[in-house]
Amino acid sequence: MKKGLRGFLDRMEPLFARGGRLQNFNAIFEMVDTLLYSPPDVTRGSPHVRDALDLKRVMILVVFAVTPCLLVGIWNTGFQANTALTAFGADVVPGWRGALMAMLGGGHDPGSLYDNFLHGLLYFLPIYVVTMMAGGFWEILFASVRNHEVNEGFFVTSMLFALILPPSIPLWQVAVGISFGVVIGKEVFGGTGKNFLNPALVGRAFLYFAYPVQLSGDAVWTPVDGFSGATALGISAIEGMQGVLDSGLTYTQAFLGQMQGSLGETSAAACLIGAAILIYTGIASWRIMVAVCLGLIVPAVLFGGIDSSNPMFAMPWYWHIALGGFAFGAVFMATDPVSAPDTQAGHWVFGLLVGLLTYIIRVVNPAFPEGIMLAILLGNIFAPMIDHFVIRANVRRRVKRSG
After folding, report:
1. Global confidence as pTM
2. 135-153 in b/e burial notation, b at 16+ Cβ within 10 A?
3. Pair 171, 126: CB distance under 8 Å
4. 186 within domain boundaries
5. pLDDT per residue of the chain (403 residues) written in tens, 0 to 9
6. Domain carrying residue 43
7. Is 219 exposed, middle or buried (0-12, 13-18, 19+ CB in 10 A)?
8. 285-298 burial, b if ≥16 CB within 10 A, otherwise e?
9. Number of structural domains, the chain?
């Protein structure tokens, strides 16, 4: 007889199986079981896995790949907050965060790694906990109604959603956003593997258009009341690159992620580390990543010398990649195996489309200086059509070859 936790779960399983006294809670039991141990079966539908890895292991690797962005984002959030407090001449960190930091021996010195990380963590954790609670509620509810297992994909969705939010967002908006993303972006289509839009981006887009004051792309959020200004992209849309340089932001700071912005998407360097992990493990398509970058770089180089009253035309391609959430979107969002095309040629077309749309939105539409979020969602809509035409072209080629 099996002993320990595995044996206990096996003995409890009949109670949650069909016909058992607790069959209505089977989804919760399966969630706990598969979280602790590998499931007995492997993935059969999207997202597709090319070897014996089960979906849980794939999601763990994705979380591992996004960890550098998480760590840099937590530190940067604390650094920006502590810098603002120092500029204001504050003696202590205000509110409950200050009380906790004092208990844990932390302060608000922007030169202290511990102070910055601890302060940033106290902004990230509430957002992530609310994301898990609200999104997990809907995941368990739909799994229970459909008598399905709770899919592990939500762990990645919850992490990515939390990292693309500003640290100062009200927690009730976090709950509303993830609820919209999970229910409208995924569950209404049948759950994981059947959605054609990225759920995390759906939730973020809903918040952006429903509550633009807190999510506006042309305003900087620093988790200190009364401290705000224009983002680097917002400055460049009005004053051009000279305005960005005059603000004191260097390219090194922008590339490493030492600037105000969403929790985990400011560091292009951390995104490159995550990209290397995803490509090495074969989980994400390098073709999509490269194509998204090319879709932005090529028009930025071609039209960079245009004499225009729009200062965004003069932004160099390498600044486009470092600013905003472009790198994060190209690595972690555009490569979503469910909402992206399945064919290799489709990866190139999809990536080029996303990169080009990002450039167009950033440059042509000064009211929306970011662009990558909407570009990926628009690309998701066209992904099935891209695969359709790629497959048709392959069929015609084979027919012609055989004839």
Report:
1. 0.84
2. bbebbbebbbeeebbbbbb
3. yes
4. yes
5. 456 777 776 777 777 777 777 666 666 666 666 656 655 555 555 555 444 455 667 778 899 999 999 999 999 999 988 988 888 788 888 888 889 998 998 888 999 999 999 999 999 999 999 999 999 899 888 888 877 776 777 888 999 999 999 888 899 999 999 999 999 999 888 877 778 899 999 999 999 888 876 666 445 455 555 444 556 776 777 777 777 787 788 999 999 998 888 888 889 999 999 999 999 998 999 999 999 999 999 999 998 878 777 888 888 999 999 988 899 999 999 999 889 999 999 999 999 999 999 999 988 876 777 889 999 999 999 999 999 999 999 999 888 887 6
6. 13-213
7. middle
8. bbbbbbbbbebbbe
9. 1
* Measured distance CA(61)–CA(277) in Å, rounded: 8
Supply 217's token pair: 């792309």
Cβ-based neighbour number of residue 381 at 10 Å: 11
Helix axes 113-146, 55-88, angle to 10 degrees: 140
Q: Residue 240 class from Cβ within 10 Å (0-12 exposed, 13-18 middle, 19+ buried)? A: middle
Neighbours of 14 (CB within 10 A): 13
Q: Is residue 8 part of a domain?
A: no
Residue 267 belongs to a domain: no
- Determine the Cα angle at 158 with ends 231 and 229, to 5°: 15
Residue 143 in any domain: the answer is yes
